[in-house]
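Note on ligand handling. Small-molecule inputs were canonicalized before submission; formal charges were left as drawn, and no protonation-state enumeration was performed. Where a ligand contained multiple stereocentres, the stereochemistry in the source SMILES was retained. For thiamine diphosphate, this procedure yielded the string shown in the input block below.
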Amino acid sequence: MTTEQKQTVWSATYDLLRALQLTTVFGNPGSTEQPFLKNFPGDFQYILGLQEATAVAMADGFAQATRRPALVNLHTSAGTGNGMGNIMTAFLNKTPLIITAGQQTREMILCDPLLTNRDETMLPRPYVKWAYQPTRAQDVPGAIMRAYALALQPPAGPVYVSIPLDDWDQPALGRAVVRTVSTRFAPDGDRLREFAKRISASKKLALVYGQEIERSGGWDAGVALAEKLRAAVFHAPNTERLSFPEDHPLFQGMLPIAMGPLSDRLKGFDLAVVVGAPVFRYYPYIAGPVLPPGCELLQITNDPSDAGGALVGDSLLGDAKLTLEALLELVDDGSARAAPKPLNLPRDLPSPPNSPLTASEVYAALSELRPENAIVVQESPSNGADLALWWPTVKPNSYYTFASGGLGWNAPAAVGVALAEKKSGTGRPVVAVIGDGSLQYSVQCLASAAQHQLKVVYIVPCNGEYAILKEFALLENTPNVPGLDLPPLDIVSTAKGFGCAATLARTRQEIQAAFAKALSADGPTVIAVPIKHQIRPLVRPVSAA
Ligand SMILES: Cc1ncc(C[n+]2csc(CCOP(=O)(O)OP(=O)(O)O)c2C)c(N)n1
Ligand SMILES: [Mg+2]
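Structure output:
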């Protein structure tokens, strides 16, 4: 017998995963997955998530930090359901995740036994690029190859393959075919030159930079283009990756997250060029035009759906980095353009300090000890802007949050990012700032951080409430909403229970002592910090451009 003949679906699949470098498997096992996981090869690593929401988001953080696709193995319908919120987030994040899920035995599936994933390809839709269950066992490796190729190509995203548990021991057709696909595409040259002309002709130009720039490795190209054009640069509203240094003199902050205020902020500009983002990702509805009168819009994106969905303007499809680099060559020098006034945000602290401290005072204290190479992961809804003020992002690959607002993504994603750092040996510390409400959604990720001794410092600002929902209630005029105050939560005990070091820090001195200790530790630390109750406008007033 030749080796070809001896191959099973199991061995052909593991060979394929090896060839695709998908040797880190994030998952939570069940009976339907055990035939896949049996005799788990020594050159693979299984990262256990104690709930599927955690497994999916850890994989997402890992994929983003390694800039490679990641593999997730979920438990049939129940596991897919648990993972679904973070599968939705991965889809909006455009993270290439190859998700496989177990399925009942083909022999028996007709009579709906326990663990059947009914309508298995429908369950994860519409938040996967492809969902498939091979029609015969021999197609499993080919289906995974197709899933990989689809996940990776722009716009990247999660794909889902359901695999009946009796497929793994079946004879394979032979070695799986290993293919490669491209991950970026260049813009159409004629249209690009037209865009370059319109950009060069603008008298007052706004560049709106979004997540695709950071994801494509286009940070430097974006800075060079802005400098050549002397343009004002904004972060796209609700962008989940930051693509421009927040301490740059051209930087003008993030555009407001609502329609009316956003168009107000663009008053006076004759052209806005949105690179690598939808037009626009709003949160609350505040009426107003999409753009102020006299302002035109150009959009560059690698996502036909975002190009199709733009409310205004002309779009060009292309990879952000390739397009920025090409534009840099084509546009006229902008030295005649008046550079915008630098932001110069006031960073004042009260003396004596508040008791408890405000979120701003907490972030100010932390920022004094900021390691130059630290990575921030942020899910602290009502005070994320305070963090940005005191801990600006100034380098690429240093800031993560979610594209969806679906809570429970960032705490486990931080584990995935820290795992990537550990594996690559760079040793960059991950500082995860997670609200006291937000931490609860995927809190079991703390056990994975402890199990793998990852360098993550969780800062948990504790206001005992869902503050941002109280802000939303004021904006929407919806008084007396129940459920906006948290029950007493002993976050320090919870974190210790999962195996993390944990401490409560109330003052600036205590925060700094705890943070310094956490940064020098090898494993994860959770620092719970009581903060002052503050309800501020959900959409902050617009200052003049
Ligand atoms: C999965 C999910 N459930 C519910 C919500 C609604 N939600 C948005 S923000 C928020 C409260 C967040 O509270 P916390 O993390 O304590 O931050 P704070 O607003 O207090 O700063 C909730 C429940 C959501 N975004 N996602
Ligand atoms: Mg809170």
